[in-house]
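@channel sequence for tomorrow's demo:
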Amino acid sequence: MSKIRSFFAIDLKNQHILDEIEKYQRNLQKSIGPLKLVNRSLLHITLRFLGDIDTETAKNLYNFAESEINSKYFYQKDEKIGILKGVGDFNKRVFFIKILDIKEFLQDIYIKINEKTRSFPEIKQESKLYTPHLTIARSKRNSHHRSRQNQVINSGQLPYPQLKSQYKEFEFGKWKIEKVVLKKSVLTPTGPIYTNLEF
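structure tokens (generated this afternoon):
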């Protein structure tokens, strides 16, 4: 039986926010050196990576998301508004934008998804605390030396600490979170291809 590399996520489609993110990505690339920037069409908030699962498991999890998450958390009159404000990084290897106002809401959804995944032995369990964030770039292998070279070449650009400080309170925008989606991920030499699964 074929396996599906998949994960739960929330799509980001607000064009104004995407424009602002691209501006920051360009500044980040100039400031810190060679990076793998996440294409605007692929930007999303990852809720829970599932790994390689079979079709039946994917179908079960899709139905769970529709009946236990989306119908209870999103399909009501009160809108769920997320704010993207401020930036950060994990050891200058993964660069992200912070998510405000709905942090606890997303953590609650993550907990429910995590509890559901315990029913499937094929899915690796996670014990770490979930911190919602939007990944926008990753460092390339052996990029540390190249990044130092890049800072010399682009001497007119802001050093990363200054750029990070400049964007510390920058608000990329607000967007309405509509639902949780189950995504299929296909890895290719030119980058991943994501599609939303439906059953």
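heads up for whoever presents: The CA atoms of residues 98 and 133 lie 5 Å apart.
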